[in-house]
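Handout, section B. The chain below has 446 residues.
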Amino acid sequence: MKKIHLMVIALILLSFSSCEFGGQDGIVYRSISFNVPGMKSYYFNVPEGEVPDSSNFPDDPDVEGFVFEGWRRNINNSNENNVFLSTEEYDLNTPIGTDSVDLFAVLIPSSWAEEGSVYRQLEEGKSKISIDSTDDLKQLSEITNMRIEGSDTFSLNSVPKINSGFDGVTVIIEKDIDLSSVSFDPIAENYNYYLPRFSGTIQGVSGGENDVVTVSGLSDSLIAVATGNVTVRNIKLSGEAKTAGFIKVVEEGEHVVLENCISDVKISAENEGEGYTNGFGGFIGEANASYYIELKNLKATGSVDVDDVYDSVAGGIAGKLTSDGFDISDLEVTENVLGGRCAGGFFGFINTSGDLDIRNAVLNTDSGNTATISGSYAAGGIIGEVSAGDIKLSSCSVNSYTTITPEESAGAYIGRGNCLSIEDSSSTNNTSYEKYGDTFSSGQNM
């Protein structure tokens, strides 16, 4: 008798699998469901091959602050926790096929739905997107994070699949923007790894070679996580941040370019660090496994103070850089760099399997400002610690009003290093410190 009961239960479960229901007349039924993020789902059954009865359809959702733009199918049924909606609205007059239909309400924030908005430009597939207001820049952040401030309703499940990482897109900031009056989350600071990291270009409109657009009132980095091909140019940032002014972390960057930018950002990390990285810098916190990095015509006028963060690496330009290749030129730093483990006027730590050539880098041009470079393990006026092939410092200068500590692991140019050779014949050391600190190759050419 027990075996019979188990067989009956198994048959019942089998009949309900795949939302297939057989009636007494042999008709197979499929379900059609209507889902609204943050609200209860609704569904009813439809005979296979028939058009759903419109009298059973729920009313269009009316959510304050959002615009309803129809029902769309989930195109990623393999993972119910990760919904991506079709780019096409579902036709409710379509006969039900052999699969049940899972529909989601498209809810676009009212600000996104306006003609010419950042979202509309992205939805239209434009390769160049214009930003000319604080709201526009905030919307760019919202799109990359799929998060709207103060809304429990909105989620990734509310919009069709779009290029939310701005891959291959150039974002043009048309004029100065002040973020001091709004809550601005860094671009691509999302914890959902199904959302892409930022992989595009952000640039200010330039009326000349050295013109920049200013984004002021920053309370954290402009970009949290970037990957792939990333370019930032013609922008000045001012305000405060906890990791870096421009980019906290670059993950596996193909080609990373920062060009013609100014960081007037005060970096002051909390004691427990930021969770992303232990690298901190005026422009980049940390770049991991990047293939090629270009840093050109950059000026840092803020400060980097992360002395209380355990094992931190700090630099006026970047904290920690790992790359197969670099193109570094025309840098100026006039700020204090206080790191935990390694500190450098320009770079806390650099690691490359290739050669390293730094051209025209000047530390502390302002005689009224005594820059302090401090790291417990290594400190250098240009680089705290470096591992590279041949190193060449061309037309670099570290000026006399610079303090580097601790002296036993300090160098006017580099604190600690491992390399094949160093050539610095055209560079100037105006300090009382030796050019190089500890553990350098015997093949130095100085």
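Note. The longest helix spans residues 2-16. Compare this with the example in section A.
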